[in-house]
Each structure stands twice: as structure tokens, then as C-alpha cells.
Specification:
The protein is of the alpha/beta class. It has one domain: pyruvate-formate lyase- activating enzyme, CATH 3.80.30.30. It contains eleven helices and 15 strands.
Amino acid sequence: MVKPFQPQLVYFEPQALEYPLGATLKEKFEKQDVEIRYTTSHNQVRNLPGENDFQKYRVAKSTLVVGLRKTLKFDTSKPSAEYAIPLATGCMGHCHYCYLQTTMGSKPYIRTYVNTEEIFESAIQYMEERAPEETRFEASCTSDIVGIDHLTHTLKRAIEFFGESDYGKLRFVTKFNHVDHLLDAKHNGKTRFRFSINADYVIKYFEPGTSRLVERIEAAGKVARAGYPLGFIVAPIYLHEGWKDGYYQMFERLDAELPQDAKKDITFEFIQHRFTKPAKRVIQKNYPMTKLELDEEKRRYKWGKYGIGKYIYQKEEEEQIKSHLYSYMKKFFPDARLEYFT
């Protein structure tokens, strides 16, 4: 079982201490005897302990930077939502394939933002622009927000903020089972609580530092019984020996755990494994012993919108993945909605 995240090292940006959450976190970490440092900006976080890049990367993954979100312009977040709401950045998990490997690059530490009211003010403006249409906000584009929320409760505040809104919906996804503090949040059905799930093989070999499948499924049962609309991202769908059985058992276990009434409103998102050349270089540097299959010759190349193409499965493999997983979903969750396959 993975314990809730506890940083080894915490940096505070000066202005963060002017906000109630910043002051609360400082007091909390002082009591826990965590090493605290100060920095003018997260960009100045350098000289982390470690003999080499490998060690420094692991220290960074257990480092928390408490600061302000300066840019209050939200990025778009298709196909999952209209906008990404920025509550945190970075993740304590060690998923070998993760796209944050390249987007975070040399800054794999975790950042949490304490100016939450300013972030919510921006969200109100985006909702007003689109009213009376609903506006969906994705809270986990650049982080696993659940992974740090037992420390900050920022996500819990966001759930209750959108619960009171007229036209806002919140969405996020997690690989962690530390959800107990979120079960009594007044969500009013406006937050879709999603879990990233996968075959046991993928979690065992490629998702160290995250909760096991059985723990995520148990957490999903708790969340369903707390009345949240549920969703599941099956990603990355990865071809391995016995993959058909592995994914079938995943759906079977999920079906056994969830209460019947929760099954009427479930969404799924299917994402096949892909990688880019830059990502491959970073993965092999950070996880030199990985079993992850990264052979360009076995894949087909798909152009990306920013000029960086991805290596995805061959067309016939993709069709196999799609037909098998769709049939499992329909067998166990006939009322579920597949939001996309990519």
C-alpha cells in the first residue's frame, strides 16, 4: 500500500505566506519537522540533494513548492473539458510512460498554489462568458491533484465551489486511493470523480509510487457511495502477454465493487499507449531499467498538432484494443458512455 504523500523538502515562495493556506502549510510542516527552504520563485529551485541526475530526480519528486499561480488565464483542455483549472503542477508518482516526463522536464517537483480565491475568480469569468451553457473544468491536466489534497484541501474547496455554481462542472482523475477526506464534500453532483485504472501488469511494472488496482477500485466504491458521478480512464492501454485477460479482469473487479445505482452514470476514456522521441529519451534516462516497449519499428507514426509526432500501435493492433475493451465495457457496464478512444 502506498502511504499518502509526505514531502521530504518544502520550498515557500515569499508571497505564499501572505495567504491563509500558505501560512497553514508552513505551520503544518514545521510541526512535522520537514526541511523548509525559501525561494524567490519556483524557477530558482536548484541544487537539490543528490550525487547524480538519477538521485536528484527522485529528490525532486518528493519536493513540494508552495507558491502562487501567477497566470490566471486558463488553458483549454479538450477533449475532456473546456478549460484546465490550475490548482497544482507535478506528481509524486513514478509512472514510466507519463507525458509529464517531457512537459515538466528538468522541474519534476510538485507545486501547489495558495491563491485559490483568485483562481476561482477567474473560473467565474469563464463561466459567465459561456452562460447559460455549462463549462467543464479539468483539475488534473498537469498533476494528480488527489495525491496532495490530504495536505492542502484545495481540491475539496474546488469541489464545493463548483457545487454551488450555476453553470460549472469539475472533473479530475487520480491513481491514488487517499479519498476519505473528500467523501463528505458538498459536491451536489457537479464533480465527476475519475480514476485511472489499468491491468495489474501495467500498474505493477510501470506505475510505481501509485495505489494498486484493488485500492483504486475500493476507493471508487467509496466515491460512488458518496454520490459522486464516476468516470474511469483506462490509460495507457498497453499490449503485453495476457493483455486481453488482464483488462477483462480489471472490468470484472470494477463491476463487483460498484453499487448498482452508480453504474447508470459512468464514463470511460480509452487511451492507447504512445510515446514521442523526446519522451523516450527522458524515460530511458529517468528509468533506465524500464520494461516499457519503446521500439519505433513496431509502431506507426502519427503527426501531432505541434509538429511532434507520436508512435502509436499499428492499425490492426489498435482495432483489436478498441474491439476488446469496448466489448468488456458493454458487457459489464451497458449504460456507460465511452467519451473517446485515442
